[in-house]
Amino acid sequence: MKVIHPGDPGYQARRKAFLGTLTEELPAAVACCDTEQDILAAMELAGARGLPFVLRGGGHSFAEHSTTTGLVVDLGAMKRIEIGRDTVRVGPGVQIGELARRLAGHGRMVPSGWCPTVGVIGAVLGGGYGVFSRLHGLGADHVLAARVILADGRIVDAPDDLLWALRGAGAGNFGVVTELTLRTRPVVPITTVQATCAYGEAAALVDAWQHWAPEAPDEVNLEIAVISGDEPGEAPYAVLFGVVAGPEEQAAKLLGELEQAAKLLGGLPALEEVRLTRLEGAAAACHHAYADDSGGAVTDLPLGERPGLRLNKSGFFPGRLPRQAIEDLLDRLAADRVYGEIRDLEFVPWAGAIGRVAPDATAFVHRGPRFLLKQSVQVGFRATDERRKDAHAWLNRSWARLSPWVSGVYPNYPDAGLEGWAQAYYGGNLARLRQVKNAYDPAAVFRFAQSL
User: Fold this and answer.
1) Of these four, 175, 207, 368, 388, which has the most CB atoms within 10 Å of its CB?
2) φ and ψ at 203, to 5 degrees?
3) Reduced 3-state DSSP string for the chain
4) Which tens digit of pLDDT belongs to each residue from 378-423?
5) Average pLDDT of 161-166?
6) Alpha carbon distance 396, 211 (integer Å)
7) For the CA atoms of 74, 299, 118, 217, what is the dihedral angle to 10 degrees?
8) Is-contact 409 314, C-beta < 8 A?
């Protein structure tokens, strides 16, 4: 086990380029673990020094739960991938893109997430929504087994009650998951969809989408992003993007259905720059493109700079938003824009295979919503403290207006400022989760700001 302190080589590289909170917690040390024995040694070190510790796999927590002023137990080097006939065993350092590439060579895939640089285990333990989740279900629904280091130092194969809890609420709450066994699926050909829509017609597009997308066939996973860029003089715009697990003709037909839904609601937004691209084999399995084709790329923090800020609010919507609320939301996205500040909305369809699992079958309770909405604001490395606080205040004001329609929050989109977070993340499964926590970690050895 290698321990890195401030000023040592490698310390700077473990800082995030963009934070999800106004302040950055810099760890007193980072323990770089290669084995389970390293993890045990790191836990002992934290105890001996009286330091709080947190676990870090991919390190993408929106609420910065993977950092601390104490000891960060970094699992990023634990990249074991063992592929079976229809299963795969992965370590906590494996990223979604890495796993997709390895499995693609065997004609297999796992619907574990979207961004290729996110850790597989962290994503799956919080739900694991991805490109193929409406077709096959969440990553959490593909967990078959887990190997876990418990608070008392035992290394176990998770019993049924613990495995249930890990499938949706397991990220850092009950122990260190050093290996997951996941069910894999055969790779299917897809058609990727990318189309833009003028900002003035975005409300009509969103309204039609929220009526149509949750009822669309399981093969359809089309999102909408509405983006207000960092140049106030440039108009915001909307992008319809995602995949259809079928041929181009089917994708084109489905776009026609969306346009018909808009027409029935009294509007007909013009989709422009429509691109339908057929992908097969490894190209289909490794498709991760977002609205801007970035694939969720993460920028390294330049030397000498402090991290930028990317703040998020999100929630599930069990019903449809009134058209007036959609228009109000979009108006606020474009109002009082500031140079250097990026604002965006992401509408994610739910239902499909996700909704055919009972809310209490796993710890992931959010099976019934129609869609998920995430609202974000971003400022760069050199933004002043005042500019950062203003962006934070804008996001809070804007999101508060949606509260009458929100019911629940995706655990993988944690919100450091969320009141009633435990109920929002875990709903009706909360009481049972607390029983599991008490059974396996009664002294709360594994704890962070929003741990059970």
Assistant:
1) 175
2) -60, -40
3) CEEECCCCCCCHHHCCCEECCCCCCCCCEEEECCCHHHHHHHHHHHHHHCCCEEEECCCCCCCCCCCCCCEEEECCCCCCEEECCCEEEECCCCEHHHHHHHHHCCCEECCCCCCCCCEHHHHHHCCCCCCCHHHHCCHHHHEEEEEEECCCCCEEECCHHHHHHHHHHCCCCCCEEEEEEEECEECCCEEEEEEEEEHHHHHHHHHHHHHHHHHCCCCEEEEEEEEECCCCCCCCEEEEEEEECCCHHHHHHHHHHHHHHHHHCCCCCCEEEEEEEEECHHHHHCCCCCCCCCCCCCCCCCCCCCCEEEEEEEEEECCCCCHHHHHHHHHHHHCCCCCCCEEEEEEEECCHHHHHCCCCCCCCCCCCCCEEEEEEEEECCCCCHHHHHHHHHHHHHHHHCCHHHCCCCCCCCCCCCCCCHHHHHHHHHHHHHHHHHHHHCCCCCCCCCCCC
4) 999 999 999 999 999 999 999 999 999 999 999 999 999 999 999 9
5) 98
6) 27
7) 170
8) yes
Cross-strand pairs, 243:
192, 221
- pLDDT, one tens digit per residue, over 287-323 is 987 766 554 444 678 877 889 999 999 999 999 999 9
Query: Structure pTM?
Result: 0.95
Tell me how far apart the alpha carbons of residues 29 and 2 are, in angstroms, rounded to a whole number.
10
- Give the C-alpha separation, 203 to 225, whole Å: 12
Q: Look up residue 220 and give its two tokens.
A: 């359809």
Q: Who contacts 238 (Cβ-Cβ below 8 Å, separation ≥6)?
A: 196, 197, 198, 199, 201, 202, 205, 206, 224, 225, 226, 227
Q: Packing angle between helix 202-212 and helix 248-264, nearest 10 degrees?
A: 110
Distances in whole angstroms, Cα of residue 174 to Cα of each of 72, 167, 225, 352: 17, 12, 35, 30
What is the rounded CA–CA span in Å between residue 378 and residue 389?
A: 11
